[in-house]
Amino acid sequence: MSLLNKLNFKIILFILVCLNYKCKKDESITTENIIDISSIENILSKSVLVNLKINNSDSIQVLEVGVCYSSSNLLPTKLDSFRILKNSGSLNGNYSIQITNLMPSTFYNLRAFLSYNGIIVYSNPIQNFTTYPSSLSIQNLDSNMILVQGGRFLMGATSEQLTNNGDGFSAYWEPSTQQVTLSNFKICRFEVTQQLWLDVMGTNPSAFNDNLQRPVEQVTWDTVQLFIKKLNQLTGKTYRLPTEAEWEYAARGGVKTTYTYIYSGSDSFKAVGWNRNNSGPTIFGNRAQVVGLKLPNALGFYDMSGNVWEWCSDWYGDYSTSLITNPTGPVTGTDYIIRGGSWLSTNKDCRISYRYSYNNFFSIIGFRLAQSTN
Fold first, then answer.
1. pLDDT for 22 beyond 90
2. How far is CA 228 from CA 138, 233, 340, in A?
3. CATH homologous superfamily of domain 138-372?
């Protein structure tokens, strides 16, 4: 072989080695080892924080890093919605991207992507999350007030409420029933959130105050009246607490329900509510949850079984033995009615008919708003 041929052979061999090295280098850039979603945090109604981990030990010059997401596509790509990390270059390590302008109460699939030299690689596996419902605020309060058509119903310990259901409960706190007729009224879809309380009062008394979409708690019946007074002054509306009868009628589903469930919206508590059995890793780690995460009842009301007890306007007292229209409870008393059970309750305390009385504040007690329609 001539010297020229030997030189050409070495050059060709060198080129092949370089190409092989480049191919191997490119082959090392896989979805498993170049980029991944390490965690999803701060899920809100319209935004979420996505944490990325980039393993770029070869110092590849990255053109784009981002997250693509979709509520319909199981494998979202850049053809769907996406958000790009502002940084570019030889990225390596941990980064975060805030995704905004999401739809409330919506399930999203998402995965990270990275591009270099015209090539796009996606993370695997696909991650998903569900955005929270819209936070209840002054701006959207009126649109969350649901009109309840009045009617007649049997209030209290009806037969389905006395079903044992494995808890061994009795009708001690609701020893009788009463026939009640109600006029039309409005009641709020959600328990009053910490956001709404903060909008009106400027402070937040809640124990679980890390997320303003949790229900406000640690509020007395009297401080709720101050809140309602200020709210009415700010809005020009006439909000109030629901009566006990209105509360139970709404929890049962009003005239839209032909069968009354044990809990508000279901015979399965886990489907509709939070209590000591599912609101934390242990009873000592339980807490009030963001409103609206469980299923609503037939009228669209959330969390009427569990999460936080809810103040009613009535003093505690016995039921009437005769048909009564728009009852408001005893004229005087020592304790006010609370309804619905809480994150600390057992299943039996979260039944629709279960009633209790209280006269102070605690992290298990909040409320929801009502309105008269005339």
1. no
2. 12, 9, 21
3. paralog of FGE (formylglycine-generating enzyme) (3.90.1580.10)
